[in-house]
Amino acid sequence: IGILQSAELTGRLDESLDSLASYLQREMETRGKVVSALAYPLVVMMMAFFTVLVLASYVLPQFKPLFEELDAELPLPTRMMLFFARFFTDLWYITVLGFLLFIAFVLFLKMHPKGRQLWQRSSLKIPIIGGIIEYAILERFCSVLSTMLQAGVAVPDAMATTNEAVSNVVYHEQLEIARQQMLEGSGFAQPLIE
Questions:
Q1: Closest by alpha carbon to 177, among 119, 167, 190, 123?
Q2: Tens digits of per-residue pLDDT, 77-120?
């Protein structure tokens, strides 16, 4: 919307729509590739969770009487597994409560502005994933800025609109600072470097 508003002012609406269409097409292709790349690990993770759930709730409790008959000191990993199996069988309500609390926490991170801020700040610090997120943010920033500049939008307006397109709070704040520094005469490159 910001691109179109700025393009209307410059009188280059047709060029802006062409640039915007190609940008949106690239964005959809990239999103499709990411979703397809994450589908397999998600299926494997769900299957692993289901397998552990079946093992902990059904298979391990079957061995518990055998271990008690032997009256032997079990190794620590076996005792830990039996302890966790107890949560899935005898203390199932604690497991359900923990799962519900986890879902509530995830919903808080998604819905509440403070939660979203917390998630976005901490997600940038996750090893490997943080780098991927940063790369995606910078790619979007550069693509939107390039599209706007090609459409003839002035740099300050382009920066303001591009800043709105960046969804991460950390980058949004830093880009707003960079835009203010540009307006104060610090040039284009130096504020972005900082």
A1: 190
A2: 878 877 877 777 777 788 789 889 999 988 888 888 888 888 88
- Cβ contacts of 67 within 8 Å, gap of 6 or more: 74, 78, 82
**Residue type at 9 in one-letter notation:** L
CA 123, CA 153: separation in Å to the nearest integer?
Answer: 32
Instruction: Please tell me whether the overall predicted TM-score, pTM, comes out greater than 0.85 for this model.
Output: no
CA nearest neighbour of 179 among 154, 152, 160: 160
Q: What is the DSSP string of 127-192?
A: TTHHHHHHHHHHHHHHHHHHHHHHTT--HHHHHHHHHHH---HHHHHHHHHHHHHHHTT--SHHHH
Using an 8 Å Cβ cutoff, are 20 and 14 in contact? no
CA angle 181, 186, 187 (to 5 degrees): 110
List Cβ neighbours of 109 (8 Å cut-off, separation of 6 or more).
Answer: 115, 116, 118, 119
- Rounded (10°) CA dihedral 151, 154, 156, 157: -60
- pLDDT given at position 130: 82
